Structure formats: C-alpha cells, structure tokens
Amino acid sequence: MPTVLDIGLRNVFRHPRRTLITTATVAFGVAFMTVAAGFLDFTFWGLRQSIVYGGLGHLQVLPVSLESRARLGTDVAAHTRARLTADPAVELVAGRLEVQGLVSAGNHTLTFSGIGVEPEQESKVRAMMTLTAGEWFTGHERGPRVLLGRGLAERLEAQLRDVLTVIAYSDQGRMSAADVQIAGIFESGVVEYDARTMLLPIATARELLETDGFTALVATVRNAGDAPMVARDTAAWLGAESSPARVQRWDELSPIYGSVVGLYEWILDVFLGIVTVVVVLGIANTMSMAVLERAPEIGVLRALGFGGGRIAAMFLCEAAAIGVLGAAAGAVVGLGACLGISALGIDMPPPPGHSQGYVAAVHVVPAAFAAAAAIAITSALIAGVGPSLRAVRQEVSDVLRAT
Amino acid sequence: MTTAVSVRDLSKEYRTPGGRVRALADVSFDVERGALCALVGPSGSGKSTLLALIGGLDTPTSGEVVVGGVALHALSPARRSRVRASHIGFVFQSNNLIPVLTAAENVALPLTLGTFSERERARRVDALMDDLGLRTLAKQRPGELSGGQQQRVGIARALVTEPTIVLADEPTAHLDSETARDVMHLLRSINLRRGTTFLVATHDLNVQAFTDTHLVLRDGSLVHAITEGSSPCQPCSISASATCSAIHAVP
C-alpha cells in the first residue's frame, strides 16, 4: 500500500531533467566541499610537516629563563633526554646550541645566526630541508664543517668547500673564532631564514661559546597526534621535578600555523556558506515548482482526508531524497576529483616569503564527506520547508475548483 | 430511510476585492441513504461551493451540515479531515489520480489513513477493481489509461472506504458523450447494487437522466427539488411532499 512517503520518493523521478539539474547542483556543492576540505587538509598537513620537519620538531625543551644566554645544563639536558627517549611515543631527541656572530669569506663579513647541532639526529628533524649542494656533515670530519643557508652563501659569495672564519662572543665574554669549511648549502624554503642561518657541529658551537650546555632539546614523536600528550606529560614531570626547563609544542613555537589555519578555515566557511545557499535555493525552486504543479493532487489528497502533516512529509521526503541523491553523487564525484587531482598533482607557486613551490594534492577526508552529506541533506530539508508549508496552506476548495 | 446528509440554512459568502459575494443563501435539504441525487444549475450557481461545504473542504458562513450524523460545520479542519477520510468519497471533474501510483494504488490510497489490516485493504481494492472492470488495469499508471478508465479508477477510489456519501463534482465534464454515459451507468449501477448514496453536481442534462432526484440551484439558492416521476415543486412545499422520498427540501 502506498504511503505519502512512497509518493514523495516516486515524485523525485517525475521530472527527470529537473531532478537531474537539481541533483547536479547538490552534487556540485558536495564535491566542492569535499575537494576544498581535502585540499585544505593537505595544505595544513604540508604546513605542519614543513614546520615540524623544517627544524622545529614536535616539541622543544627550553630553559625556563628567557635570557639570551640561558642554557640547559648538561645534567638537566641528560636527564630530560633520557626521560624523553624512554617514552615510546618519542621518535628522537636532538640537542642544539644557538650561536650568533660574524662570518667572513674573502672581502665579505656578515652577521649570522648559527645553530650547533647533533648531525645525525638533526638531519632527521630537518627532513624537509633541501640540500642544494654538498652533503650533511657528520661532526667527525678532520676540521669543522658547516651548512650555509643559500641566501647567506650568496651574500658571502661563498662556494662549496670554501673556508669561512666564524667569530662569536663566548658565554665568558671573550671573543672566539674558528675556521670552518662549507660542507653544503641548504634551502629551508623560507628566504629570510636561509639568508642568515648556518648549521654547524654542536662541538664547534661549544668551542665558540665556551659552554657545554644546550639552548634546546628538540623532540619529534612517531605519531603527530601524540605531540600534545607527550608535551603535557613532559610539562608535568618537569614541573614535578622543579626542573629549570620548560616545554613548548610546535604550534606554540610557530603561532603562524594557527593563524593560517584560522584564515583558511574562515575562507572555506564563507565558500561553504555560499555553496549551501545555492543548494538551498536550487532545491527550494524545484520544490516550489512541484507544489505549484501538483496543486490539484494536493487538493485531492486533502479531500481524501490526508492532513497537513502528511502533505508536508510528502514534500519534505522528496526534498530529502534529492539531498541524498545529490550527496551520494557529489561524494562519488568528490572522491574521483580528490584521487584524480592527487594522481596528477598541481604545481603550486611558492607561498609568500618562500623560495620553493610545491606539488599540491587533495586528501580524502572521510569526516569532510560525512559533513558535506549532512549539510546537503539538511539543506535539502530546510529548502523543502517553505514549499511544504505553502502546500499545506492551500485552500482545498480553491484548488479543486481550479481543476 | 435514514438521512445521509442534512443541510440547514446553509450560506457561504466570499470576500472579494469588489466586496462580499454570496455564493449560497440559506439552502436546506436532506439526502436519504441510498439516493442518487443530481445537483443541477448553471455555472456560478453554487454547485461546487455546496459540495465543498458538504464535503467539509470549506466552512460555511452560517448554517449546518450533518453527514452521517456528524455535524461537520462545528468541527476543526483536522477533525473534518478525519471525517472526510471515513465518511465521504469524492469524484472530481478531472479525475485527479496520483500519476506516480498505479491504478490499484490510487484506489488503495484512502485506506492508508484508516486502521485497516493489509488483508482487508487488499480485499476491498480487489473487490472494487473486479466490480468496476479494472482488474486488468491494476498495474497501469494513470497516464496509460483512457479518460473513462481514469474516471472509473477515481470512482473506485471514492468507494473504497465505503463512505456515507460520494460527492461527485461534474464527473463527466471532461468525457465524450459515450464515455460520460458509461460512467453514469456505472454510478447508477453502484447505487443500485451497493446502495451507495451519491450527490452529483452537473449541468449535463444527460447525467440528470440517471438520477432519482434533482436539486436545482440558481444564484446560490435552491429553487427546485424534483424527484423522478413528480413535477417540479417549490422547495418550501417539497418538505411536506410524500413523493420526494429520496430527498427533502426544507424551507
């Protein structure tokens, strides 16, 4: 026996072309939402990766003091390193000692920002860094070797294997100097960073600064999602031990990530709002046409004793069915677009302040598919409310008199 | 005989941009169970308005309508809907079948509102489809049926709840004369075999030949009530007339 819901569902296919156009509108909206969300997810993932594996790590243990020459003492650093390394969620821990000074090559002398690193661990923390020439130093070479940022090398007019003189003030206030050889030239992607940064063995940095401490211990975790938990735990035991060290997550050290995510998500929300309005208007138009055309049928159903609720349910069912069909079609199109775009790759230009472009992909984000489908179906139902109420409010006698 | 429909002092006014228009003025009559009555009159005489009021599709400005013992004029729209579903069948001038349903599903449609078992629903639909010669058309959609066949399906739909009265508004208006005659033969046959009460609004003189009694409306007023074999009478005198067995017009 047919119910009003059966009638509503069958009416979906009554005007195939109109239904196709409306469904296509919904499908376009859903596909757009899934692709846009997938692209943003890739963008955020790429940004996170470039921040974390560009050298920041997932978390850093730093001296509590914000003074420029504050250090983690060897005991504190060793203890902290041991506890972090014992955590199965932690991938690696790398020690750093920052040094600022002057670097000379030939007739050029420039200020530089140096980072003394433990080469083996640091090369993993800087997995996203590109060596444009040369190779990583091991720290065990006969003389000290360094990596120069591309901009710094260009400003010094220095070539691979050139010898540079590095001068710095030690923690004791004495001026110290060392000759180092260029082992490689790197690009982090950030022009400003590459114009002043030098990576050198931590042993060389210690000689220059006459200290055996660290300015930071950098840690990465195996699963990025564990970073907040590891940071929380670390902060807890550092506090419990009254350690002169503190911990900061990567997103606290690089607040630009939060700003970028906030901006992009705001833009996406605006687009989603526009798409949703288009979907609602499309379905509302189709349903209004349906109510107008089916006035005699509405009158008949009312005359037979069908109440307003059932009539409204019939039209809402039809609207929801269009939403479901559109969502399903949109999900298929969206999935195809995500996979297709990722397979082909999109060459993106360098972002502002960066020197390298990248190949963009679109992630398949199941949550985005679910949300897009929910938005489409909800929008369809909302779009169906007005026409349904108009159908219910029609005077039955007027409708029948007109037929 | 018991009364199927009782109408007393029924009036209906509409508001229009030009002022108030009186569509019905103090109409009173009874329709006995088992009658086949024609409601006749020219266009604009108030036939459709009267049917809408008797069917509970509209509310009167004043007066009373009682169908199957239920005072429709005193009910809310929702209650009137329920009364329509159980007591009143409708046959429209355009058959107004639901195009996406088959003939059998169209016939079964009013039963979805009741508390009938699946078996009872199937029994009623099958019986009517057989009775009205629609068995072979059960799975056809309205678009695949001729005008006459569609009207038969519409009549079956009106009968399926076994209503107190079937109201038919110009049921032959869109049919050729031969098909119109067939449809009226069918209504007459159902009336005689099943004892179904019909009130048929029409201005087709051929239709009037199939009915027992005629209520004549003009300018919203009931001007004559004629029963087969009797001469036209003024409404005021008919109430006392012994010849008007099927219908009583009451002053």
Task: Describe what this molecule looks like in 3D.
The complex is a heterodimer of chains A (403) and B (251). With 403 residues, chain A is an alpha+beta fold. In chain A, 56% of the residues lie in helices and 21% in strands. Chain A is built from 14 helices and twelve strands. Chain A has helices spanning 4-11, 16-56, 74-86, 119-125, 150-156, 191-194, 202-209, 227-240, 250-253, 256-293, 295-304, 308-344, 366-393, 396-401; strands spanning 59-63, 90-105, 108-117, 130-134, 145-149, 163-169, 175-187, 197-201, 216-221, 245-249, 346-348, 358-360. The longest helix of chain A has 41 residues, at 16-56. The radius of gyration of chain A is 32 Å and the shape is elongated. Chain B has a six-stranded mixed β-sheet. A five-stranded antiparallel β-sheet of chain B has the order 5-4-1-2-11. By secondary structure, chain B is an alpha/beta fold. The longest helix of chain B is centred in the C-terminal third of the chain and has 18 residues, at 177-194. Chain B has helices at residues 47-54, 77-87, 103-108, 118-131, 147-159, 177-194, 205-208, 235-238; strands at residues 3-16, 19-32, 36-40, 62-67, 70-71, 88-91, 165-169, 198-202, 213-218, 221-227, 247-249. In chain B, helix 5 (147-159) runs parallel beside helix 6 (177-194). Chain B is 31% helix and 28% strand.
